[in-house]
Amino acid sequence: MIQKFDVIEKEALENLEKEQKSDIPQIYVGCATCGNATGAQSVVQTITDKLEKENIKAEIKEVGCIGMCFAEVLLDVIKPGQPRISYHGVTPETAEEIVDSYLVKDDHRPDLALGYFGEGGPADVERIDTGDVFKNQQRVILKNCGIIDPENINEYIAHGGYKGLAEALEMKQEDIISVLKDSGLRGRGGAGFPAGRKWESCLKPQADQKYVICNADEGDPGAFMDRSVLEGDPHSVIEGMTIAGYTIGSSKGYFYVRAEYPLAIKRLRKAIAQAKEKNLLGDDILGTGFNFDLEIFQGAGAFVCGESTALVMSIEGNRGWPKPLPRPRTTEEGLWGKPTLLNNVKTFSVVPQVLSKGADWFKSIGTEGSPGTAVFALTGKINRSGLIEVPMGIELKKIIYEIGGGILDDKKFKAVQTGGPSGGCLPEDKLHLAVDFDTLVKAGSMMGSGGMVVIDESTCMVDVARYFLDFTFEESCGQCVPCRQGTQQMLEILNDICEGRGREGDIEYLLEMGDSIIKGSICGLGQTAPNPVLSTIQYFRDEYEAHIKDHACPALVCKNLIVFHIDEEKCTACGRCRKACPVEAISGEKKVPHTIDQNKCTKCGICFQECPERFSAVVRLTGKENLAAAASGKEG
Amino acid sequence: MMLKITINGLDIEVEKGITVFEAAEQAGIYIPPLCHHPDLPTFGGCRICMVDADGKIVTACRAPVKDGMIVKTDTEEVRKVRLTNVELILASHNKDCQGCSRNNSCRLQEVSAFVGINQDRMRKIRRSVEAVKPDDSNPFFHRDFTRCILCGICIRTCEEINGVAAIDFAFRGFHTRVSVLGDKPLKDSKCESCGECLVRCPTGALYLAKPALVEREVESVCTYCGVGCGVKIGVRGDRVIKVDGNRDNPVNRGDLCVKGRFGFDFINHPERLKKPKIKKDGIFVEATWDEALDFIADKMHDIKAKHGADALGAISSARCSNEENYLFQKIFRALGTNNVDHCARL
Amino acid sequence: MTNSIDDIADEAKAFFIIGSNTTETHPVIGYRIRRAVKNGAKLIVADPRRIKIAEKADVFLQLKPGTNAALLQGMARVIIDEELYDAEFIKNRTEGFEEYAEKIRAIDLNEMADITGVPAEKITQAARIYAGSDPAAILYTMGITQHTSGTDNVLALAGLATLTGNMGKRGGGVNPLRGQNNVQGACDMGALPNVFPGYQPVSSPEANQKFSEAYGAKIPDKPGMPMTKMFKAALEDKIKGVYIMGENPVVSEPDICKIKDALEKLELVVVQDLFFTETADYADVVLPAASFAEKDGTFVNTERRIQRGRKAINPPGEARSDFEILCKLGLKLGLKGFEFKKPGEVMQEVAELSPKWKGITYERLEEGGICWPCPDENHPGTPILYEEKFLTGSGKAQFKPVDYKPPAETPDQDYPFILTTGRSLYHYHTGTMTRRSDGLSDLYNVEKALISKEDAERMGLNENDKVRLTSRRGEVEAEVKPVSDLKEGIVFMTFHFAETCANQLTNSELDPVANIPELKVCAINLEKV
Q1: Alpha-carbon distance values, A322 to A187, A271, A470, C217 (Å)
Q2: Which of A360, A546, B237, C413 is deepest in the core (most CB within 10 A)?
């Protein structure tokens, strides 16, 4: 190990010891964007004020996201000699209570606690790290997120950080690449290209300058894996990029971060400055003579700029348009025409561990074809949404029912969507499938960058397809015909289907057009844009047919295809729906069952929500007959 | 270096470095182009020229030939992709072909016919044309956004041919359109109105403000500056209604500037002099040619007789032909004076 | 031009554009240069105004009007000091280098920087680019020639090109871009007071005899008067009659008040034109001529390429081509040799009398034009001059050192601004043709005198404010437009607009050799109206 690093490591540990004063309680508040959005900052403020005012000795730390988004705001307390207790749904008021009861006194407040980590916790509180949420997870990329203070480099070093860099700097460049190749690490951006091969193809060309780019232009709706890593563990990405710089012979790296991630940018800036201060970045890193500098480039939020060539164009100051094939590889002619290594946040983030723990360790996780872990942003109609990291090869079922805790409100599972707007929807009979790069593609979906949306019976699959297509339609760059015109045309047809104007032959035409768009488009955006439509047709064709032939939306979602109706038998004439109706479409008196004037009804659904569950008198009807009855003026 | 490739079963030898499109062209095989223009770098956005090269679907305009390459230009797959693409373009394209200046000379029509657009299939498409007002700010040519196929030829022309780069793609996705900095009218941009974009537009998106379909063309030389660009004068009836650059002319190879291309109104201008005039008592009176020339000849003889030939001054013209300049100096030198000059110094 | 458009556009590694607003006055050559620069050629631009092509320049030298020679001498000094010249070319193909170098070494670069207002570093940078790029082409227009020092300026440019071996070579040369479609041809045809067709001097006994015989008259062996002197002579009663063909001196000549006086005095003024021009007002006879589209004939472009113009339509009414009018007039005057049926027959006579054009026939011109000299019918033409020898006694280029001379008129207390004039992309000369185009007028129809933003601010002038511009010779009212393209103290106007005629103000002082007026520099005053 480079001697200089030993000194830095020792110093970091000493400083940390001094800073942390482990003889007093430690308070952690999850302050990633997710935490802040639910009020973490006011919790931090309240506690800080309280500690100062009442002269209570404790350390408070803002940490990243531990992944349990369903439980935000999360506040963890470690009292000396005690395990870490996690409190959920914390408000400024309950935060004060926790301080009063647990810090000042010794009541650990099982009523507010989510659970504890490690061993020896109180019996009336659940252990979390062996519970449903974590037992199926394996945290490699996220290992520090929510655990360490992302703004303190000493903590990162204390958790084994920069060891990978120190080791790499003593290795031959080819050797680093063979470790990566042996490990089987595949890029975490979605396509899963072998990282070792990419690095190698960037090492080969001779050039006066090469670049390393970290693609942090995370744009899938519902995906926030990269953001969480940058917010919770920025040094891991910096370390990975520095190793990449050393390996391919580059002295300059760029973070391409979308401007919508201000906290990630702030944390990165701070981390870069700290790393430079410690001589882990900048000139003559650790006295080895290797120079590497990092710059943050803020993207303006175009989804297509996540595509490597569009991203490069964007940094160069051009319109962010992908370059059509055939074109030189980015690894040979990338940014400013120089060899450029471009990887995703998570790829860079895991590299230091691969180097310090070895290829075999990495291979021991996951499957043979897809070693390592996968990070997912688990959202949708699920009990425990959040950020999870699982070994590759895990069954979808496990993720949804064990980690995610099953479907919200005990509804019936319908589909799971992975891969964002490029991915597809898988039905219940595919839940036994293993999560890895290749299996998902075979089933008509893809890993993508890691969004996973759970869909229940109350969701219309045509509407889901329309939602994702609307996204790609808006985000199409406009350069090539199939994507620019094709997404619009498919969207028009889906709109028609959802609004009762579907025609015989639309499904076949969508399939045919989708195929041509995939074959004809310039970049990945267009080449995958039809996937949500194609996969929903593949697995839920009956829903499409019901929309087209019977003007029926089986999930009772598509407004134009449903009517609201009050069941005379069930209506108790309580008048709630009548009072709530914003357009005065409901008439009726005391003791007289209410009716809806279909000519006035705007289908806002408020009556449906207002009708107490014990009556359930307001119902939704769909299908040609019901629609026709309503249209003919007959009371619906 | 020569490479051997096969296109549709024909063995062809081609130069290394050319594209599949160029190779096919050399072999006389038609590949439908839309965004491709021989004067310009390739774009690859229309996806119409797609062919099967060694089993992969690629854009012929960009794919370089490789030794041993097997190209198929008319497989089932190729036909489908091309057909869908053209259908998609037509989905948001103005339907009125008869009212279009490029009716019958439109690349989109040509390609549509080639890929086999038919009404049965078109009925499946949701056709709608976005209502964007045409840019008619420029006095010579306008832009009809409903006929634009976003091939980018005008943009590349402005950048590569003229070097002005006044226009570019603006907005995004389906709302993409060609515009100038700040989405202003073209007239308020740095556009130099050379019309090179108009000439290369494959559809009727860019069209002449005054329609000009000519009956015949006459090759000549531009009458303005000293560059001497070759022009084709377009005539209808007894009027000049159009001027085009002559692509065969070695000087300009078809390029023209705003004056050369559009500044021909003066030829048929109502203020043109149509009769000789002699000033009598301070007023110009129409005269016959004989009267006018006799008057001049008499006066010149008179001056020469009274004051000598050097009392005459002859100002010739840098706008007249060589023959005319020659005759002009010949007249005065034959009269006995070297007082001959023209506006070379201005 | 010593070279052709093609060879410089395709092969020059650097362009030195001086006194030429190329993209506006020669747009199609402008395209070619912009393309070449895009493909990597270097570009030096020298002009008092930050013209459009300056945007693409590697070095832009914003010199004071009328200081070209100082700038060029400065560049020569750098080239000689740093030994950037082409020693082999100088040894083999030139004469007088030592004297030239000695004279140049006596020049103080800093003094040249002071005179021109261009920092010495920039002059140095320009010299290094020009001399360091092989080949490098010089392009210039009236910004070089319309000065009392015009001839010196051209000699200084020739000096630079000779010094760096850029003569007689593809991609190099000294290239004046000619401003009018047949200004080259008019010169070639002897529409000049000192030479017969083909530049045969009137003073040469052989040439004089040849033409006198051919024309059946005794032609004087003394050069005649240039146009610039004719009007002065008219005021002195030495000229009594003027025949003006396709020319509008009342707008285009410098110091117009004097021109008008002269025209009024003449006994005979004939104006032959397409329109009733401002000059036609002063005519005794106005003859309706045909436009280029209404006649056959040949034209010579800036690269000496002779090309065919062809008749597309008939002239309107009784208008006739100049060819027809002149033939008829010749006969009316009782002169011999005017019995031509068509212009092609005139070309035969030109070829017979002019050795440089001997190989030219209409048939050969069908194939795209020929660059003269073309001494016989099998000669392909000569796109590049001086490839083997120069037109001197020894066949070698002669270095001719020049001295910087300030313009005839410089700013003073009464007239503190310098006015310099030029053209716009949208108009041509006095606008007889272009101002009759609705479209061109739509794009540009009101003269705006351009002034620097600094001057505008100092004088409280805003865009479209009306000002009176006065010089020792006249005055004009025009709207102003403050621009950042001009340095303080400089005013720019075009000469396209008769109603705001810049030539009311310009100076008619001449270059002593070329008799070209100093249209590019005169002292004026400016006041808000």
Answers
A1: 19, 31, 20, 76
A2: A546
Number of structural domains in chain C: 3
pLDDT digits (tens, 9 = 90+) for A404-461: 999 999 999 999 999 888 889 999 999 999 998 889 888 888 887 788 999 999 999 9
Q: Using alpha carbons, list the distances in angstroms from residue A321 to A486, B88, C151, C259, C414.
A: 17, 20, 53, 61, 59
Comparing CA positions, the residue from C188, C175, C169, C176 lying closest to residue C386 is C169
Note whether C288 contacts B272, CB cutoff 8 Å.
Answer: yes
Closest chain B C-alpha to A326 CA, distance in angstroms = 6
Interface list for C 476-505 with B (CB within 8 A): none
Sort strands C268-273 and C285-288 into parallel, antiparallel or unpaired.
Answer: parallel
Q: Which pair of tokens denotes residue B295?
A: 């008057």
pLDDT digits (tens, 9 = 90+) for C230-279: 999 999 999 999 999 999 999 888 888 889 999 999 999 999 999 999 99
Contact at CB, A324 and B174, closer than 8 angstroms: no
Q: In angstroms, rounded to a whole number, what is the distance separating the alpha carbons of residues B296 and C272?
A: 12
CA B278 remoteness from chain centre: 43
Same domain? C168 vs C23: yes
Helices (H), chain B: 20-26, 76-91, 107-115, 119-122, 153-157, 196-200, 258-262, 289-307, 322-335
B81 and A520 in contact by Cβ < 8 A? yes
B221: helix, coil or strand?
strand
Out of C225, C299, C443, closest to residue B221 by CB: C299
Q: Which residues pair with A29 in a beta bridge?
A: A62, A75
Please check whether residue C171 lies inside any domain of the structure: yes
Q: Which of A319, A489, A519 is facing B88, going by the closest CB pair? A: A489
Q: Running DSSP on this structure, what letter comes out for residue B8?
A: T
Give how far Cα B250 sits from Cα of A306, A492, B225, C12, C354, Å: 47, 51, 16, 18, 25
What residue numbers bound the domain in which C370 lies?
A: 179-224+295-309+336-374
Closest in C23, C179, C514 to B226, CB measured = C179
Domains and CATH numbers, chain A: 18-133 (3.40.30.10), 161-363 (3.40.50.11540), 373-456 (3.10.20.600), 461-550 (1.20.1440.230), 559-631 (3.30.70.20)
ipTM score here?
0.93
Q: Backbone phi, then psi, for B326, in 5-degree steps?
A: -60, -50
Question: Positive or negative CA dihedral for A321, A326, A329, A335?
Answer: negative
C233 part of contact set with chain B, CB < 8 Å: yes
